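Re: Re: token formats

Sure, here are both.
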Amino acid sequence: SWKPINDTTWEFKLRKGVKFHDGSDFTADDVIFTAKRAQNVPKSPSGFGTYLKGKEFIKIDSHTIHIKTKKPYPLMPNDIMTVKIISKKNGEGATTGDYNSGKAAIGTGPYKFVEWVPGDKIVLKANKDYHGAGTGMPQFENVLFKPIKSGPARIAALLAKDVDFIDNVPPLNVGKMKKNSSVKLNSGPSNRVIYLHMDQFREDSPHISAIGGGKIKNPLMDVRVRKALSLAINRDAMVAKVMEGIAVKAGQLLPAGFHGVSTKMKPDPYDPDAAKKLLKEAGYGNGFEMTIHGPNDRYINDAKIAEALAQMFSRIGIKAKVETMPKAVYFKRASRGGPNKSPEFSFMVLGWGAGSGEASSPLRALLHTYDKSIGMGRANRGRHSDPAVDKLVQKALGTVDSDARGKLLAEATEIAVGKNYGVIPIHYQMNTWASKSGCSYTPRTDERTIATYVSCK
């Protein structure tokens, strides 16, 4: 259990009787060890400092932890949930290589680590001493995860019965697979919004020019231009044609039902005439040229989304070309590929999944003023900045009362997205899993594929 015991202290009670896979007890010592190690892993492949920075962990007894912060912090349970607790007994002195080999990969979950062959497979076996119950219990003796990058290849493997279950079914194939009685499909909405970030901090933007290639003051700094771009997007067509109906058009950072969502905001209508009028009012009636940058292997149909946007923008006089690249290259350049490690691109196709389950996640990362020293705006590649938004976000992050925090987050969204067009939401991604007949998957909004969510008759 967990609860705030005062404005700056959370108390976490650990479940008793939980055992690690090697039979040792799970205690507060393991939590304290994890909190220290996760922030100081040499050459860490994935940092957890964002979730642990500024938190003091105190052991009260063998199964009680207090976590203190300098200011009220309502998202403590969300942050702690993100960091997986490891065994102090097996982790002291262990390297990343020891975890990858399995030597130190000792957890408390429903499946035990057996083997990892990079690029080939991960093998797990059931933990028969697992402390959970019901749907959390392991249903299979052995589980093998096999990465297959190509969507058609994954489908072919399922139809050939080489595998029992696949994730990330391409939208183009969903309709046909629904007619196949030998497979079962499960689809569900995610908390990932596909959106556009635009250069709002450089008057001379590197990938924008006047028609014909001459110099031009960055039009994306004008909110009328950003709104015009939003009105030029035919979201219904994007969902129906590009996403094959497997998406939901978006007007804000999270779909209805999540905490901090505004009830006042709807997706912008497709209105190219109004878009042209706004461009003229802003002094860009003749249009301009720009490059749309995006990944080609990160989001569902990401390259096709960029191509469709270029076509839609051409209808309001904006000549856009598209440049996509592998995610490993794209995100590094998009974040710090420019001078002095600034964002390189002018106009970007991106996605964001709210790990916290509320609007604070995208607001603090995408729309709060970029400030590395306090961990704000870390993914704000357009450098949107509004003191009013910053104030609301920071106040929300210090408000423990859930209802009050939700109202602050909704207000911040209404300003940052609805008024400022700091980002332009396009659609919420939906995900589809497929399995052999007799099996099914319970879709997760965080898009993860977890063995305990697979059930078979």
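Second one below.
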Amino acid sequence: MSQHDPDQPEHHEHSGDHSSDQDAGVPEAETREHPTVPSSAGGTDPASYHPVPDAHGDWTQVTREQPAVPPQAPGPWGYPAPAPAPVPQQLTARHAAPSARVAGWVWPLVAMLALVVGVVGGVVGAAGFRLVDETAADRPGTVRDGLFGVDTATEAPLAPEDGTIANVAAELLPSTVQIIAAYGGDDQGATGSGFVLDRQGHVVTNNHVVAEAAEDDGRIQVVDQQGNRYDATVVGRSAVYDLAVLVSEDMAGEFEPTALGASSRLRVGETVVAIGSPLGLSSTVTAGIVSALQRPVTTGDPDSDTSYINAVQTDAAINPGNSGGPLVNLLGEVVGVNSAIATTGGGFGAEAGNIGVGFAIPVEQVRITADQILRTGEAQYPIIGAEVRTGNENGDGAEIQKITPGSAAEEGGLEKGDVVTAVDGVRVTDGIALIVSIRTHQPGETVEFTVRRGGEERRISVQLRGQVG
């Protein structure tokens, strides 16, 4: 299978096999190696697959108690017991999709799968009595108290007995929007999806939807269900977690925010709904089930910071243009942000679409990253300062290729040649799984690594450091 990224206007990538080393020690302890790959015709981003630092955020810190899960639809959408932790897939995706068409690019994957990012539609935070507090930082849209300083939805919009796909659509469509962003010199060169975060006009979407517009100070617009357009600016974004927060003061007080749920309460087989603007078709609703949980995959822009996430996998139809839109449970709560899909497309310019394998960023990470961005305009992720191989592994663990001097890994006692087999007791099969596992924690936390060294198993504690990204 090949990797296709529909979120890149007229941007195609060359394919080839990669086995790269992840350096979890940039600045503090994380540096990346970028295998050379020819850039695509007519594009500017190389299809290099680069290593990412070992870092992660605790997705359960701020999770509130959730109401009972509603009954599922009959048939195959029942409630099978949660499946064991899946073997990590090395997948990637990036950039926003061109409006009006889908441009493809192929990105080789170690796991022989390809992730495609669809971008279209971002929701605007709305209706509120308080305007955005710009005194918390120099950036527009920041709020001194983060998520605690804005008006968010505190209750699930639907009771368990009312949990139908039709009711979810009725509740969420008004709060799901399309995002149009400048790309390649065109003010409408990229499109994506998103959802309203609060009543102050904040919107959550994927970083790759607005990355180029943010870098070039390009125009960003949010389009609601009725077709009304609102100018928006980027409050902050994280390439590492492939998330961005926008703000449009004109939307403040005009929209109901979405309720954030908990992906940790999802069960394999549970019904979920994906909402967004696939292929430019705004306000599109699709439904499916949770196919797998804690699926290590990568999304984002490999030419900068690749995003490693412990994704929610779903068979709900997700296509180019869905990126940044909400994945919702039958209580009407957002449980993830749709970010990538696996495809079978191959070759230059091959267009790819849904084959029933989509991936969403867990909402717990969205909470953490959005809160950080609202407070400071930036997001942090954890690093240890160890380089680890991310390709051609046998599933027996992640081998440390290099330790950065003075890094958290060195101070904790990790050594080159150590094979990490578990983090806090959770099995690690390869480099991607290690990176994802670390990034489910927060800077400052201490995690325990189980390693094989010289034929012996030992446990080493490392205090994670933080880095902006």
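The chain has one domain: 1-64+83-469. The chain has a mean pLDDT of 74.
- S.
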